[in-house]
């Protein structure tokens, strides 16, 4: 049985038509995914972090093509995969069904600036949760930290360099360091602790098979108390 659900935010979560910037963001990412059917595998830092964990409930923020959500489901996690693009979440749902993990994947379309999925999670992953539109990202990530069960992990992985194939080639792009991201989250140290904050580099392969060294920015936070 295909028990995968695809939900839009409830009516109360959206006020009218939204601002022009919000509509632009949704349109931008919708066009992005309509124009590309390529399939991405799991992000390496998520695989490294989640592989030793006992599977539980996971939330993938800005899931995109769904490589991470599907990988987690295949490891036994129950995953809620969220993106602003309806096309992206529909593809994740189809892929989950095709691979026989539909019973472990829930897909929800949210503009996370406006609504956030319900539930409590053992792992929340935000992999390259970047957008060219204004977004109070730290507010979304703070909400994510509060959605963790005690002992749960929030893994934030950002770009720390511009890959040659990136959609964002703006030379003025600034990449906040892990400590800056942690400071913006402003989490109470009595309830959350930082387990990892670093900037590893790795070889990466672009969509046309090209290869380059890229830097990632990693922040791993654990909820230690209610
Ligand atoms: C750079 S992509 C990363 C996608 C995926 N996590 C990955 O690692 O390949 C950023 C993702 O965030 C999503 N996104 C951007 N703004 C969003 C918002 N306000 N609410 C929800 N998702 C958003 C985009 O649609 C896109 O899938």
From TrEMBL:
Residues 59-152 form the Methyltransferase domain. InterPro entries: Methyltransf_25, Methyltransf_Superfamily, SAM-dependent_MTases_sf. It holds the Pfam family Methyltransf_25. GO terms for molecular function: methyltransferase activity. Residues 1-21 are annotated as: Disordered. The keyword Transferase applies. GO terms for biological process: methylation. Keywords: Methyltransferase, Transferase. This is Class I SAM-dependent methyltransferase.
